[in-house]
Amino acid sequence: MNITDHFSPNCHARSSRVDSLVLHYTDMLSADAAMGLLCDPKAKVSAHYLIDKKGKVFRLVEEDKVAYHAGVSHWRGKEGLNESSIGIEIDNYGHSFGPEAFPQVQIESLVEVLSDIRSRHSIKDTHIIAHSDIAPLRKKDPGELFPWAYLHQKGHGIWVQPKEQDLKSSSFGMASGAMLKNTQKLLKKIGYDVPENGLLDDKTEAVITAFQRHFLPMNVTGELDFATERHVQRVAEKF
Ligand SMILES: [Zn+2]
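That is the input. Now the predicted structure with zinc ion docked in place:
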């Protein structure tokens, strides 16, 4: 595939094996602006790839180097995902300037980039994740408009089709106790860093929101309603 090199100084040599792919949106007004930031030595941020809205792919950091895209993060028992992941920035207005749908041509390029990367590294579907999955208290990207279902259809990542009938059912409201504790346990099984205390504390609410953004994007409430509780069970079976 056609990739344009535009290297960032923000990287260092990699010593861990690559086992995860982290997807981001840029949350900026243009790919040029994002490129400026991701290559600014003072900003100390970067990603391996940037995909603009026309589907053009830029390589900012070589895959054998660590890029600075994940920050403080956790997934499936591992901390600090920069060391073992490849980060892809997708040009999008994000929650700051959007909402903005992702153009199909951009997603087709992403699918190609993912196939390309996975031909070189052993990366499981359970390890193709959102920035919000690994840093739920800090991050929302790539957001609830990101087409995880389509990506799954193309062979990348986990997706379980939400059930319409669950979404129509009434909310439990503020769930607590045993049910919440069980949901926390399942969210942990999926990979989230979440307490197992049966309480809807800030961290648990952030993780429920992150789960919804990724797996139940038509229902991003931060609440453990009936549809979310059921869907956590179904998704956890795939992990
Ligand atoms: Zn991000």
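The pocket of zinc ion is lined by residues 24, 131, 139, 141 (CB under 6 Å).
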